[in-house]
Amino acid sequence: MSLTDTYTLANGETIPKVGFGTWQTPDGDVAESAVLSALKAGYRHIDTAAIYGNEESVGRGIAKSKVAREELFVTTKLWNSNHSYELAQKAIDESLQKLGLDYVDLYLIHCPNPKEFRENWQKANAQAWKAMEEAVEAGKIRSLGVSNFRSHHLDALMQTAKIKPVVNQIYLNPSDQQEEVVAYNQKHDILSEAYSPLGTGKIFTVPELKEIAATYKKTVSQIVLRLSLQHGFLPLPKSVHEDRIIENTQLFDFELSSSDMAAIDALKGQAGVASDPDK
Ligand code: NDP
Predict the structure, then answer these.
(1) For the whole model, what pTM was predicted?
(2) CB of residue 222 inside a 6 A radius of ligand 1
(3) Residues 6+ apart with CB under 8 A from 86
């Protein structure tokens, strides 16, 4: 396995098994150079979102890297205020324009039940999805997915979706493995992407992880990201530091034993849990 190895999605598209996260990466030089460092380190999968406010700098980092577009996988997301047909159409075009790309590889509904559309989230998602499906037909998006969805949100979406979601991006790390959502995703051939794979930095304080990392002569970050891969998830580590960006790619020269995997899986709730998307 290597950084450029891919999973094959249910629609036949391929997706690099590790993505580079950009939430809370400040717009401007920081985001641009983080993306450049990531692409230099060998990542070929970048995860951003309209709400991160850094699509333009992410796009500049991509352009400066000179990595061929067909070698790259870029994801962005529809923000909560845009859950209607017209607003989603506009949001897709705006994201493409900011990123400086003709298409994105993956476009996700960021949250299933935003406060703005609480009265009728099912209809709002269905309308946004229709705009997303048309963008696929128009060549602006390759694959569609969701984020923070639970089974009832996906069940509702599937009632009208012509194109099935192939990814569900969820909070996933040893502190909360969201077993029910993961089982639902598996059953429906939806890849589970692991956001906050390092618990947004909180995972580093878990003492048991430090002990296990020492036995493998690896860092806590590498242990946790390796676990994510061994579970068949797609981790999306974020960093703005080049040394950590590189560290987070060194995952392919060791394997966690099944007993260590079980020990890590038992570490629940030590570094935060997924928030409830209906609250
Ligand atoms: P992560 O779980 O990836 O953790 C990032 C934090 O850990 C940062 O503080 C970073 O610091 C630090 N860090 C990274 N690598 C190391 C290392 N090797 N050693 C020590 N510290 C390290 O955070 P996120 O919550 O950002 O999640 C990752 C990505 O997932 C996001 O960036 C985003 O793309 C996606 N996401 C999606 C969400 C959704 O709703 N769909 C919600 C949340 C995240 P520093 O940067 O200073 O190096």
Answers:
(1) 0.98
(2) no
(3) 131
